[in-house]
């Protein structure tokens, strides 16, 4: 794990931040328990549940992952609809199929927004970005699952905690609030689901 970025705080606890190129999920690990050192490592993983599996893949012993991983925070950035040229529109047929497949009837009757393109947004229809997040805390059942070094068992154990709170769910909330487009949500979801 490369130490591209390192942040040190004054006081008894030292926080070290390691961010390899392409990192997308924040992994909070502590090293040297009792030594006052907190280490924050950023790994390139698809989503929060993949993080523990990736650590094992990288050669970390599963017992060590189970005992030192506290939480995983995954993040994606979405472009925001330009407020200067925002307009209502009906999503494309493929986007409607995606909404229905992922969220059933939950999206029906909602108004969808996009930017028409103006001088403020250089014709892109987007201005600014915001983050969506999913967080996985290492509850006892997840610690046990991580100790098994079985990716499927871990993903299964993580599912209840992430239910309705995944990156894709958060992206859809922004779509339904008219702050981003369905295509941005599809881009994030496709990225997460591979
Ligand atoms: Zn605009």
Give a structural overview.
It contains seven helices and seven strands. With 194 residues, it is α+β, with helices and mostly antiparallel strands. A five-stranded mixed sheet has the order 1-3-2-4-7. Helix 1 runs antiparallel to helix 5, helix 4 runs antiparallel to helix 5 (151-162) and helix 6 (167-176) packs antiparallel against helix 7 (182-193). The protein has helices at 48-57, 62-68, 93-103, 140-148, 151-162, 167-176, 182-193; strands at residues 14-18, 25-30, 37-43, 69-81, 86-89, 112-115, 126-137. The longest helix is centred in the C-terminal third of the chain and has 12 residues, at 151-162. The chain has a single domain (12-190), classed as Rossmann fold (3-Layer(aba) Sandwich). The model is unreliable at 1-17 and 30-37 (pLDDT under 50). Bound molecules: zinc ion.
């Amino acid at each position: 794990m490369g130490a591209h970025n390192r942040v040190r705080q004054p006081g008894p606890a030292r926080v070290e931040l390691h961010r390899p190129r392409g990192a997308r999920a924040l992994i909070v690990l502590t090293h040297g328990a009792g030594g006052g050192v907190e280490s924050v490592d950023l790994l390139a993983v698809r989503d929060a549940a993949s993080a523990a599996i990736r650590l094992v893949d990288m050669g970390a012993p599963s017992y060590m992952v189970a005992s030192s991983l506290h939480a995983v925070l995954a993040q994606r950035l979405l472009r925001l609809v330009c407020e200067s040229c925002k307009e209502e529109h009906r999503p494309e047929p493929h986007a409607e199929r995606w909404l229905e497949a992922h969220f059933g009837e939950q999206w029906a009757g909602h108004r969808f927004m996009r930017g028409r393109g103006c001088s403020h947004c250089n014709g892109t229809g987007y201005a600014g970005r915001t983050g969506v997040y999913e967080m996985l805390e290492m509850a006892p059942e997840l610690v046990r699952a991580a100790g098994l070094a079985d990716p499927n068992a871990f993903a299964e154990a993580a599912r209840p905690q992430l239910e309705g709170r995944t990156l894709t769910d958060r992206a859809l909330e922004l779509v339904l609030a008219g702050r981003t487009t369905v295509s941005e949500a599809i881009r994030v979801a496709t990225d997460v689901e591979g």
